[in-house]
């Protein structure tokens, strides 16, 4: 799928971002990463925080490209699927990993508790930090006015 088809299917909307918006998204990512380290929170809640950080990083990429994912059913999935349009094939496995986390996060949020293991939490944290580096480097290279 390409951006034009996503627009035609109303999965994304045209959107002009700026440094203020990207900075606000970075602040949400930082907050979520910080909250995920709070040991008093359940592992499930910490997992949800890390997932949220990954989602906000994906939103940064979409915004840099001049779009916003529409708030329709499946918008989290779309947020990770569109990464390959911007970053390329190298991001496919990481995007697929976050889609698995999306499904687990849905169970945590809506259907159960004590779902996530400590191992899964540690793995997600590692992947989110890796993703953050990839996204920040991509922004620096492609949208230097929006970089840190």
Protein topology:
Elements lengths: L2 H6 L3 E3 L4 H17 L7 H22 L2 E3 L5 H7 L1 H4 L5 H19 L7 H25 L6
Antiparallel strand pairs: 1-2
Descriptive report:
The chain has seven helices and two strands; from the N terminus they run αβααβαααα. The protein is globular, with a radius of gyration of 15 Å. The longest helix is centred in the last third of the chain and has 25 residues, at 118-142. It has a two-stranded antiparallel ribbon with strand order 1-2. The relative contact order is 0.16. It is mainly α and 148 residues long. It has one domain (3-146): Four Helix Bundle (Hemerythrin (Met), subunit A).
Please report the number of helical segments.
Answer: 7
* The first-level CATH class name: Mainly Alpha
How many domains in all? 1
State the end-to-end CA separation.
30 Å
Structural class: mainly alpha
Helix/strand order, N-terminal first: HEHHEHHHH
Biggest β-sheet, characterized? 2 strands, antiparallel
| DSSP summary, beta strand count | 2
Largest beta sheet: strand ordering: 1-2
Q: If you average the pLDDT, what whole number results?
A: 91
Uncertain residue segments: none
What would CATH call the homologous superfamily?
Nucleotidyltransferases  domain 2
Rg estimate, integer Å: 15 Å
Helix-residue proportion: 55-70%
CATH third-tier fold name: Four Helix Bundle (Hemerythrin (Met), subunit A)
CATH architecture: Up-down Bundle
